[in-house]
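Worked example (supplementary).
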Amino acid sequence: MPDPILELHDITKRFDQVVALAGVDFDLFGGEVHTVLGENGAGKSTLMSILSGASHPDTGTFLVRGEPVSFRSPRDGFAHGIGMVHQHYQLVRTLTAAENLHIGWAETPLLVNRKRLIARAQELVSKYELGVNVSRRVADMSVGEQQRAEILRTLVRGANIIILDEPTAALAPQEAEGLFDVIRNLVGDGKSVIFISHKLAEVMSISSRITVLRRGKNMGTLAAKDADELTLTRMMVGRDVINRMRPTGSARAGETILVADDLFALDDDGSLGLQGASLSVRAGEIVGVAGVAGNGQRELSEALTGLRKITAGKITIGGTDLSNANPRAFLAAGVGHIPEDRYSVGLAGNESIETNAILKAFERPPIARGPFIVQQESRRFAKRLLEHARVEAKSISARVRQLSGGNAQRLLVGREVLNKPRLLVACHPTRGLDVAAMAEVQRHLSEARAQGLAVLLIGEDLDELVALADRIVVMFEGRIIDEFSSANVDLDTLGLRMAGSLADADSESTKAGARGTRH
Amino acid sequence: MLAGRVHVVRRVGGAHATVYRIVALVLGLAIGTALAQSYVEGTNVYDTIYRATVGSAYGATAVLAYAAPLTLTALAFAVCFKLRLWNLGAEGQLFMGAWAATGIAFTFPGIPGPLLIALMIVASAIAGAIWVLLPALARVYLGVTEVVTTLMLNFVAILWITYFAFHVWPAPGTPLATTADLPERTDLPPVTIGGVTIESGFIVGIGLAIALAFAFRTTRFGYSVRVTGSSARAAEYAGIPIRRVQMRIFLLSGAIAGMAGGFELVGSLHRLSTDLSNNTGYNGIAVAVLAGSAFAVVPLMALVFGGLLAAGNALTVDGLSTDATLFLTGFVLLLAAVGESASRFRLIFATSGSTAEAVNPADPSPPAVERGATTTAKESA
Amino acid sequence: MTLFELTLALAIASGTSILLVGLGEMVAEKVGVLNIGLEGIMLMGAVGGFIVGVNTGNPVVALLAAMAVGGCFNLIFGTAAVALKADQVICGLALVFMGIGMSGEWGKSYTGQIPSGTISTWRVPGLSDIPVLGPILFRQEWVVYIALCVPFLAHFLLYHTRHGLNMLAIGDDPVAADAAGIPVVRWQMFYVFVCGALGGLGGGYLSLGVIQRWDYQLTAGLGWIALAIVFVAGWRPIGLIFAAFLFGGLRALTNVAQLEGWGIPAEFLAMLPYLGTFLVVVGRGVWYWRRPGHSVAPEALGIPFIRS
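After joint prediction of all chains, the assembly is encoded as:
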């Protein structure tokens, strides 16, 4: 048996009091796809940052091709052929892909200009069939293309061990399949891939071996053919978890609360984000919006909450025309918003939990009295929120940025629901959360629906959408192109719609692969 | 080089924050004093400093005299800084405030004293607010950097005053750029306790500091300011009218700086001239930074800074020049800025092998570099 | 010299000075560092160059000294703001105080003296004899010609070299640049030095060039105007030339009007450069309002780089 090209023995890493990794062993063979599976907080990212050189273990040995190494920075990792593609892509947005390829690279010629860089980039890229338009600015690219551009950069710089951190987080099923093809090609070329994920289904399809981490420990490494979902789940979580909710009874939907009619809006770069989107939501129902990230979901949620101007179309909430009203008016009309960006939009990270708790309630009694804020009421509200939302925090004066992602989201969702809105716009509310927090948030949404709220749920987890929503609409290129009832939706068809294809799943002719068809 | 080996990482938890600021300040003063001593031979610098500041009634009066306008200009800067807005124009707003007050005094000779003084102060506040109005509008509605605009108006204001002092209200019999003395009824008498004279401006400053601290914490507007300053996007999301908040803060800031001029006029100098301020506006910025922009701490830091200035002044007799004092002022400010940074970040030296991190990368916390979430002076003109 | 020639000479001198300082600031800002301490740097360069000029009589050496002094002085700012991540605006302000103070100290004994060497004028044979235009364009002190060349060099560096590409990356997204392997802090410190050197040269040119004396009022706000022209010129090196000479011209106009006795009070004339800067900066804001994609400021300007 050939020797492993990477070996980690007995790796331990602590951050202040928290033990991120405890005595972890890991190895990688050439030409394999080794997946690291685990819940959030299990230690996957820490392990990866040690492998790539961004971090250093407290104890343990790290061998690359049999030689012990000690990385001081990602550059050292690069020098040994280890390249990492992060979940948050590290490309300079204002530069083109070609330019990004060449920055900080010793092999870039001294004299360059835009055209020459593009030509050079195209040459380098032609080997890899990755479907990236190298002359395009990163800011203008879809998330999928950005990811491919970053993978490209890693490859071109000579990495033969490639670490992919949650790469399918922002991809449609077809694009994910395309990514898997890319991975298979890489492996065919002799490269090795470490794949990080917490999604069981895709892991089973792509891996050679699977290592499961839980709470900083390696729970075991299996060959993919020996693994099944149940075993993996047990290893990941420690018990059988049925984390898929069943829809709670049929929709007892009431009056129509939200009507969005033919909305047009620009996105941040000035191009058309919404191109005639129309939908409606009734009280007591959850409408799920499925779609690949970057098809106008963000613009839609912002338009429906006053954070973005629409250039045409009409928004009616409870009968009142709120097109282009400011956020204050939307708030007053009873619109709650769980934004995609929980730390920079939904919460003020540097402020206390109390300050954040009363964010939507500080202008009304009982918290407000005249020009003042009644401290007692404010504290009471915050404490009630913490209890209701089951947020684990030491006190209400702790800063929100110190909360874990799951807790912060519980706070956010709890707050929005506690304010008893008529319409709740939720954008990716369970993204990046661990199982417990996810279940919590889903519970809130279900309860909201039971209490007669109208809920618009924008998400990427199709299972979640199908389980929670009554109706599912598909968003593509700024428009709603189809609608399904969640009771009898076919996931494959849904996937096709998300990629823009109007064909049916059993039709042979559609092969809308992720090889850059849209972009 | 060292740069590659030193990592700066965000510090979690703010317990040590104030400690670093205080250490920085003390260090700055200590080094400054030591430098002064090495510069001035023959006299014991510490003696002079002691006598010039807390060691005598005269000294204490001098310190308080410096502290009075400093408190106000520092509050003016701090108010804007809560929103990460840079009002560098306190100097100009101070002068325009004084100009307006002078105008009132000369234009309404018939009004009784106390009423006149009150009108003058109000006028100075309004003038200060007007002077910041254009830069504020340009910043809030056009994104034009206030760093440049407020600064430019400082120069304009000084020239404006000079013009009035020479050509419109000149003082007879002197070639200096100053107006005649204001009528006596505009003298705002100071408070004297045990031989130490406290200018009314300082008392007003303390009151204002307390009021601002209180309002910041307990009013709805204060809450809006806090949230907007912390995260503009969260504030927008919450329905807070950001632009209105910004404009109000700018105007409040200008008004306070204007009042600094008004109080200097009625409480101290009693005539309009460029002597009214010796970098008081800019020194106010230093005071605000020393105070960590905390309103309640500002008067205290104004006293410390006033002590610095009084000491520097006294030392000129011993041979220390005003230039050296200016240098030390800058030096203390620099250290204060570094202290502020030390309170928020930690330096980690990467010795061979360890690239330490103080933040757990597995935790989906907000990114350390808040791209675009803060309003910096970089907003294009 | 006729009045016209005098005005022109002053305009060109001021403009050259502003241009040099502005270029320094621009390169610093391109890598994300906002340095408002220009006034202090100019004065340090002016006094340093002046002292060396008086003592050696050699203007070249004096100007080099001005650059060295300015560069080293700005490293103080660099250490605090770039290495130790202190707030850049406040550090810049501190630098102004320190610069005014220190230069005042050093220059005290030199007030009133005249450096014995003068900066030689370059004449382009033949062309410089053309009436009117000749002396303006072809008979200037050599510093002016250098100042005019540097923007083109900067343009070439930024947009046609590998290093320039890396610089742009640093200024727009230092975290990404760092991930790509660029030593961010190292280059930021380097350009802080360059900014200081150019700023010092700009100041040195004032004290050794046309004005030829030391006085702590020497710069009178030129440093702030240089800061403004970087914004006005949209961080483009070539555009900086026009902006710099525009303001230099305004400044000269002030002096001229005073001498000629145009009837406008001296104080209002003196306001011209500052009001002019103010109006242009605001005007640019109005012009670019609602025009998408107008912000050409480096994305990460003023934000200290912290590797997360």
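Two points are worth noting when inspecting this output. The longest helix of chain C spans residues 3-30. The radius of gyration of chain C is 19 Å.
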